C-alpha cells in the first residue's frame, strides 16, 4: 500500500505541472482580484510573500495594501519552526533568503492578522497542499491560537484539485483568490 507521503508527492507533482502551465499562460493583472479582496481589510496587518518559481505574483496587491497599513513577508527561521513575518515596503532593500525568496534586509517582525498563502494546490473545501515543509501549517496554528487570523490562498484556477491528501495538522484556508474568482470557506 502506498503511504501518505507518496500520495502527497504525486499530488504535488501533478499540481506543479498545472501551476507551471497556468504561469506560462497567465494574463496580465492577475493580482487585481486579490487587490479587490484586500480593499475590504484596509489597514489590517497582513503578510504576503515574495513569489518564487511559478507562484502567482501578489506583489502589486501587497504594494497597494502597504499604503494603508503594515505588510510583511515570511522569513524562515529554521526547519520545523513557524515563520516570522518581517515588515516589507515596495521599495525597501531586500536580501536573499532561504529557498530563493527575497526577505527584507532589516528584520522588523510583527504578527499579521491576514496571511496571503502561496500553495501548490487547493480544493473546494479550503484544503491546501503546500511544499511539504509544514511552515504555513505551524505558523497559522500559532497565529490562530493567539487571535482570529484570516488565511487567504492565492493561486491560479488550474491549481484546484478535486481532492487533496490532507492530514489533521494541515491548516485550512478561509478563502482562495484566483485570477477569476474568490472562494470563501468561512462559516
TrEMBL record:
Q: Which GO molecular-function terms appear in the entry?
A: 5-formyltetrahydrofolate cyclo-ligase activity; ATP binding; metal ion binding
Q: Give an example GO biological process.
A: tetrahydrofolate interconversion
E.C. number, please? Answer: 6.3.3.2
**Keywords of the record:** ATP-binding, Ligase, Magnesium, Metal-binding, Nucleotide-binding
Q: Per the record's keyword annotation, is Magnesium included, yes or no?
A: yes
Name its co-factor(s): Mg(2+)
Q: Where is the signal peptide?
A: none
Query: For this protein, what reaction is catalysed?
Result: (6S)-5-formyl-5,6,7,8-tetrahydrofolate + ATP = (6R)-5,10-methenyltetrahydrofolate + ADP + phosphate
Q: Which EC class, in a word?
A: ligase
User: InterPro entries, alphabetically?
Assistant: FTHF_cligase (IPR002698), FTHF_cligase-like_sf (IPR024185), NagB/RpiA_transferase-like (IPR037171)
**PANTHER family from the UniProt entry:** 5-FORMYLTETRAHYDROFOLATE CYCLO-LIGASE, ATPASE INHIBITOR/5-FORMYLTETRAHYDROFOLATE CYCLO-LIGASE
Query: Which protein family is it in?
Result: Belongs to the 5-formyltetrahydrofolate cyclo-ligase family.
The name under which this protein is listed is 5-formyltetrahydrofolate cyclo-ligase
- Recorded source organism is Ruegeria intermedia
According to the entry, what is the taxonomic lineage of the organism?
Answer: Bacteria, Pseudomonadati, Pseudomonadota, Alphaproteobacteria, Rhodobacterales
Amino acid at each position: 500500500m502506498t503511504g501518505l507521503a507518496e500520495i502527497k508527492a504525486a499530488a504535488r507533482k501533478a499540481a506543479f505541472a498545472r501551476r507551471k502551465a497556468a504561469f506560462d499562460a497567465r494574463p496580465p493583472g492577475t493580482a487585481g482580484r486579490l487587490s479587490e479582496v484586500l480593499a475590504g481589510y484596509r489597514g489590517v496587518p497582513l503578510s504576503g510573500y515574495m513569489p518564487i518559481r511559478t507562484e502567482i505574483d501578489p506583489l502589486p496587491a501587497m504594494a497597494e495594501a502597504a499604503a494603508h497599513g503594515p505588510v510583511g513577508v515570511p522569513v524562515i527561521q529554521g526547519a520545523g519552526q513557524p515563520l516570522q513575518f518581517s515588515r516589507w515596503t515596495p521599495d525597501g532593500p531586500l536580501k536573499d533568503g532561504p529557498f530563493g525568496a527575497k526577505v527584507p534586509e532589516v528584520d522588523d517582525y510583527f504578527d499579521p492578522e491576514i496571511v496571503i498563502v502561496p500553495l501548490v494546490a487547493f480544493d473546494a473545501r479550503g484544503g491546501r497542499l503546500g511544499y511539504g515543509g509544514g511552515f504555513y501549517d505551524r505558523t497559522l496554528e500559532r497565529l490562530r491560537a493567539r487571535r482570529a487570523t484570516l488565511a487567504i490562498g492565492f493561486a491560479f484556477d488550474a491549481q484546484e484539485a478535486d481532492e487533496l491528501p490532507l492530514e489533521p495538522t494541515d491548516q485550512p484556508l478561509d478563502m482562495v483568490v484566483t485570477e477569476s474568482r474568490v472562494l470563501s470557506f468561512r462559516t
